[in-house]
Amino acid sequence: MDMSGRTWKVYLGVGLALAIAQVMIDHELALSSYSFVAVAVTGPAAMVIGIRRLARRAPWMLMLAGASMMVAGDVLWVWYELVGRDPFPSLADALYLPGYPLIAAGLLWMLHDNKAGSERESLIDATIIATGSGVLSWVFLIAPYLRDTELTLAERAASAAYPLMGILLVAVVARLGFARGRARLSDVLIGTGLGALLVADTYLGVIELTAGYDFNPVAELLWLAMYVLLGAATLAPEPDGVDDVPRRDGDAAAVARRMRLPLLTVASLMAPGVLAWHALRGHSVDLLVIAVGSALLFLLVLARLLGLLRKVEEQAAEVTLLATSDPLTGLPNRRSWEAEIGQVLARAARTGEPVCVAMVDLDHFKPFNDSRGHYAGDSLLRDASRAWREALRSTDVLARIGGDEFAVVLPGCAVDDAEDTVDRLRSATPGLHSFSCGLALWNGEETDEALMIRADMALYAAKAAGRGTTVRADTAAADHAGTVGH
């Protein structure tokens, strides 16, 4: 069944229009109760249709179960109204309340399947939001119900259960909003729907505490919008978030990123803000809850800061690595090589050990690269670098100077031993390729630049001699002197 077209848009538009029309009906009429149930049922019905086409059905089935239990609670509550009963708590509440954790579990499962469940930063941020809102909910919603001596124990427990379930949904919605990557259309619809449910429950909870329960069109409209939005999310394109399918552009994700810091700031200030508000109004305050909330928020913010510092350190290490290593072969680049050879020569000056430098150039690399293609050329450079590194000692330093030219510094190695090492490298070169090499023994006084110039001159002499050979710098210098003399 193809839902990638306008199906979800049509359902969303019609569903929201029916929800608005329903709350405009006189709630004293039985028609109002019937129409409320009729609109609410369309949410789970749309989810059943949408789930049939999905590859990953289990998370959505949990969300469907949660929404269906809430609708069943609505049906039972309508029946209570029609027969003139108003029990609390009732079987309707026993149906409503499990719907919250079922929806939350399905959404968390979905995030885990989409490889967003292990993001430490988003998890901490969501916990900060939930903790801040939890302190606020406890002080203004939960605690007043628990302290109301006119309510029975069951009534207090049921009244407090709804804001507790709200805190759970706050954490899950925040987790969804902070998930890495671009937001899918279904994510936006789910988040908006659960947000509508949270606003409705909070709004109604405050009204019940201040004025007592009565018909409230705003809350009913938001409840119906929640059902419709969940149904539209299941009908929307790619709601199961298959990783190899392009996601919709991240306008919602960009908004979430911009709102992240303000939301975290507000949530972190909830506990001290509540304390200050009570102090200014001269009210008694639940110090234990505020103290625990403040401590938890402090620890969460500290964990977040430590995570940010760790990330900065990792990024700094990556930048350093990129600045000092060759991206193709992973070998030290020219900048890193110059630092290494300077340290080797400084150490040799103290110990008196010999040091040799070898300049290596792959023979006929340009024709090979042009005829075989750049991919083959890159593979040759990578394979040769790996083979040469394995043939060298741990104290030797191999670097890519540029193009097909490499340099090796061999500490504690006389020129004869250095030539033997070069022969091992030549034997290890993959694909029967050869290279030319220039060798220079440090004279104990010259700079690293002068040493490299002599090795480079020897390399050019090796190329002039027919390639595939090694020339020592002293021989190259003698030949050069003889040429100048003639």
State the order of secondary-structure elements, H for helix, E for strand: HHHHHHHHHHHHEHHEEHEHEH
Instruction: Say how many strands there are.
Output: 5
Computed Rg: 36 Å
Large-scale geometry:
elongated
The largest sheet has its strands arranged as: 2-3-1-4-5
**Helix share, percent:** over 70%
Number of helices: 17
Low-confidence stretches: 240-250, 476-486
Q: Span between N and C termini?
A: 88 Å
Structural class: alpha+beta
Query: How much β-strand is present in the residues?
Result: 5-15%
Assembly annotation: single chain
What's the number of structural domains?
2
Residue-averaged pLDDT? 84
Describe the largest sheet: 5 strands, mixed
Quick summary:
This protein has 486 residues and is an alpha+beta fold. The chain contains 17 helices and five strands.
Overview of this structure, please?
With 486 residues, the protein is α+β, with helices and mostly antiparallel strands. The protein folds into two domains: 7-318; 334-485, Reverse transcriptase/Diguanylate cyclase domain (Alpha-Beta Plaits), CATH 3.30.70.270. It has helices spanning 7-23, 30-51, 58-82, 91-113, 120-147, 153-177, 185-211, 217-235, 251-268, 270-281, 287-324, 334-351, 365-372, 374-391, 415-428, 448-464, 473-485; strands spanning 355-362, 397-402, 405-411, 435-441, 470-472. Helix 4 (91-113) packs parallel to helix 6 (153-177) and helix 5 packs parallel to helix 7. The longest helix has 38 residues, at 287-324.
